[in-house]
Amino acid sequence: MASRADAIPMGGTAAYGIWRVILASAVGTMIEWYDFYIFGSLAAVLSPLFYPPGNQTFAYIAYLATFAVGFVVRPFGALFFGRIGDLVGRKYAFLVTLSIMGGATAIIGMLPTFRTAGWFAPICLLGIRILQGLALGGEYGGATVYVAEHVPDHKRGFYTSFIQITATLGLFISLIVILATQSSMSREAFSAWGWRIPFLISIFMLAISLYIRLRMKESPIFTSIKTAGMTSLQPLRDAFGKWENLKRVLISLFGATAGQGVVWYCGQFYALFYMQTILRVNPTLANKIVALAVLLGMPFFTVFGALSDRIGRKKIIMAGCLIAVVTYIPLYKAMQQAAGSNIVSLWSTRNALTGAISLTAVTTDAKGAFVAAREASNPNVPLLVLLVFIQVIYVCMVYGPIAAYLVEAFPAKIRYTSLSLPYHIGNGVFGGLLPLIGLSVCAATHNIYSGLYYPMGIAALTFVVGSLLLEETHGTKIWDEVGGMK
Q1: Which of 409, 400, 403 is CA-nearest to residue 478?
Q2: Do residues 139 and 26 lie in contact, with contact meaning Cβ atoms separated by under 8 Å?
Q3: Helices marked H in 312-343 — which ranges?
């Protein structure tokens, strides 16, 4: 059996090998997030192209529903590919997920629109979105486990935090590619054919990532347990059919990933939609504000990941959830003021989901109720960047250490399957549906801050459950169970 010393030799070669593993895993995962989010970032452009003309409200709602399907199916991808990863190997599983995601994204760039293909176009789009969600459901667990099973125990939080950067980096690159493509052509050209470019770029990214990943070996821990005959023959039953492990899954979901998911999506996606659709900040400017805040915040993923190696994963994640609950409303009130003249938008139940397409600008009173029409002007850009950056710091606090916690919480033979499900329910369902739920609540209550009650409630639930039931996994030596050096 391979020893830990054999798997992770000391010295410069070991460090170089670890960084190769991180690069191979992170590049592919970043591309998958890019592919996933480019779909949502182009909602306003693509919705009228893939659905019947003449009803922009229906088109936007249908497109958002198609976007949401990708989040809903992620847990199923986690189960399917998690099982493969625990049976066959980590490397094989995330090679398959990368190929599916990259191929599906490239196909979107080649799809005919409704004008030329009728209902065939949106049906194909829905099918491709399902494939994207399934692929992403399998990708994260594979990349996280692959990195974690290569690195030293005492630096697992630091090294796995580079995988955590990939989600935000994928969002950042999707915004940059869209902005660069839009600036290189007229608005008409971009709407006609330029929107295809961000999707087709995925082909080149896929080729590079596959080349890197194909040259990597299997995880040393998986190789060890497979050689020793310790792999699970029924990963799904072992992961969820036994109460001891199922309890860990449920505690990980409600005591860690659910709150982490809503904080992630609130601090980046909801902040973007809030500026674009409620505060009426120019959509391109809002993209730039979020992109800059995200760029400034990304190094802090590794800061909090490394800090979790010193003081523990649980303390940082719980602190991030609690601070978010306490400060979200003051932050979003400050964003409203920074946008200029208390500008918001009138949301009726009918147009709540139509974004910038059918919004009527209005001002609010001190409580955030809608009172009169007006257009946003002269936003305080530096202040908005700062306010979004603060939220990105919360994201780093909850997301930086989560990979290390999830890896340490579950045994090697069912690790891929076990950690993937709570992660993708927490992020894909609780987090991914946040913009839809939050903006719908705004429409129902006619209060622009009420959309924050959902993420605040879930984060508060996670703080309570996590504080009481979540075990601190800091210091876990995952090589012990396969007989490695201690």
Answers
A1: 409
A2: no
A3: 313-339
The 3-state DSSP class for residue 478 equals: coil
As to burial, measured by CB atoms within 10 angstroms (0-12 exposed, 13-18 middle, 19+ buried), residue 5 is exposed
Query: What is the DSSP code string of 366-395?
Result: TT-BEEEE----S--HHHHHHHHHHHHHHH
Count of CB atoms within 10 A of residue 204's CB?
Answer: 12
User: Does residue 198 surpass a pLDDT of 80?
Assistant: yes
pLDDT confidence of 483, banded at 50, 70, 90?
A: low
Give domain limits for the chain. Answer: 4-482
Q: Average pLDDT in the 287-315 region?
A: 94
| pTM to 2 decimal places | 0.83
C-beta separation of 263 from 321 below 8 A: yes
> Tens of pLDDT along 111-163?
999 999 999 999 999 999 899 888 888 877 778 888 888 888 889 999 999 98
Asked if 394 and 322 count as a contact pair (C-beta separation under 8 A), the reply is no
Helix-strand-coil split of the chain, %, nearest 5: 75, 5, 20
- Token couple for 167: 């989600």
**What's the start-to-end Cα distance of the chain, in Å?**
15
**Shortest CA distance to 139 belongs to which of 239, 234, 220, 35?**
35
Cβ(200)–Cβ(102) below 8 Å? no
Which CATH architecture does the domain made up of 4-482 adopt? Up-down Bundle (1.20)
Residue type, 177: V
140 forms bridges with which residues in the sheet? none
Residue 170 has what pLDDT?
Answer: 85
Nearest residue to 214 (alpha-carbon basis) of 20, 414, 1: 20
Give the residue-averaged pLDDT of 45-69. 83
pLDDT of residue 14: 54
Cβ neighbours of residue 326 under 8 Å, at least 6 residues apart?
A: none
What order do you get walking across the sheet with 343-346 strand by strand? 343-346, 360-364, 370-373
Helices first, then strands: H and E counts in the chain: 24, 3
* Residue 57, C-beta contacts closer than 8 angstroms, at least 6 positions apart: 350, 351, 353, 354, 357, 358
DSSP state of 51: S
State both tokens at 129.
């979105």
Please give the distance of CA 155 from its chain centroid, rounded to a whole number.
23
Q: How many CA atoms does the CB half-sphere of 329 hold within 13 Å?
A: 13
Predicted local distance difference test score (pLDDT) of residue 8:
43
**Amino acid at the residue 439:** L
- Return the DSSP state at 447: B
Between strands 370-373 and 360-364, the pairing is: antiparallel
Token output for 133: 């969600």
Write phi, then psi, for 361 (nearest 5 degrees). Answer: -75, 140
For residue 82, is pLDDT > 60?
A: yes
